[in-house]
Amino acid sequence: MRKLWLIFAQTVTVSLAVLFVVQTFHPNLLNSVDKTLVIKEAASTAKIGSAESYSVAAKKAMPSVVNVFTSKKAAPNPHRQFMDDPLFRHFFGDQPDDQTQRENSLGSGVIVSSDGLIVTNHHVVESADEIEIALADGRTVPAKIVGTDPETDLAVVKVDVKDLPAITFADAEQSSVGDVVLAIGNPFGVGQTVTQGIISALGRSHLGINTFENFIQTDAPINPGNSGGALIDTQGNLVGVNSAIYSRSGGSMGIGFAIPISLVKQVMEQIISQGSVTRGWIGIEAQDITPELAESFKLKQVRGSLIAGILRGSPAERAGLRPGDILLEINGNQVIDSSSMLNLISGLAPNKQATLVVARDEKEIKVPITIGKRPKPLSAKNDLKD
Q1: Which of 33, 104, 192, 225 is most buried, taking the most CB atoms under 10 A from its CB?
Q2: DSSP string for residues in 149-209
Q3: Which positions fall inside the PDZ domain (predicted)?
Q4: Residues with catalytic annotation?
């Protein structure tokens, strides 16, 4: 044991002596070794950091995101009748001709087919007289509306350009809360911009934004001009179409909403094939079941949708539904609340048979019904009626 200790002590002494000699007579040699170690450490750090870069996803999706510019005639000047009055013109000056006044707005869109089909928001192109699309390669081309769906705030426009870079769609079932997402659009008209965040929530509804709501909530910064732009995953695939933000200032506050790709595809395919969206309808007014209502109706669970009113001549009236019935199931699918009821009924094909389960007089009964066609909305935002 003593011999081993002497060997160790002599080795350390010799090593220190060599280090002292090298440091004294060849200091540059040690500096070069230190630099080599620093370079290797930096390279290792860069390699690890590259996993946090989303440049590949952004480069893949950015050519598929376009800027949308619209214009329409401005509302008539309320003072038009006074413009020929000399006294009015003395105080207010010459007012521009109504015919020359136009309102301009901007938004974003996503190329979904190489032959020129682009998905955007309904509110971006609503009432527009002229639509221009600015492509990623710098070209600006006119566009025409193929169809719109105010109830989901989606629209499809088309440009007469071929071989465009169409975006790829993500698997709707794979999105999860906490997933990293990127928002691509044209905020405030500054040019194409990419922001990063996560999926904060899925299935957001009861927001009063659209009739049919199933939003992805994200904290990726979304600002005016981003509407209709792309929300993508880290592989560059389309997860949703940016639609709205919650804001008290007009800018991003970390609460943005995107229409999920599952709903986008459903609406887009109908618009492309028939120019509009056809939905099921039975003609009822409904409200959510509260704990108080559930107790008064002696329900076992707080679920379902209370039928508050029935339209005359509607499928619901013909099927024998009554105000006060509680709708529990539609074709075997549970009704959680009025929003889910609305989505389930809208997904049914008109003129087809369906089976409803309703609670009436503390009993559950099955009611066969022939589904009607949902009337066109008067506005983009409606009450919960079906």
Answers
A1: 225
A2: ETTTTEEEEEES--S--PPPBP-GGG--TT-EEEEEE-GGGS--EEEEEEEEEEEE--SSS
A3: 271-348
A4: 123, 153, 227
